[in-house]
Amino acid sequence: VQLQASGGGLVQAGGSLSASCAASGRTFSLLHMGWFRQAPGKEREFVSTISGSGISSIYADSVKGRFTISRDNAKNTVYLQMNSLKPEDTAVYYCAAGWTYAGEPTMVKTYTYWGQGTLVTVSS
Fold it and tell me: What sign results for the dihedral spanned by CA atoms 50, 26, 98, 115?
């Protein structure tokens, strides 16, 4: 499975951006998809995840109510809509895929495949 992230960019605080992640292969609907982010000098942190069917999703408290994760299994793509952005949302955003949550959907180690990351910069 190969993941290709795109989107992101530069926006002022309060603005919106979106990111997408396209996956290769025919098993996309079996994969749980996640978004993580990593700010300079910080560890990679969980942002959101969505189940293979798209029915279930989880958000980090820091983005809940502002970010929305979605997926289109026909297009092998997962999306992250980011609204009401804050300077502290500035980071490289990575999409990730895994076959099972194993009870730990917010953990980096749960995900087997990773995209290359896309930069989101929010100015104050």
Answer: negative
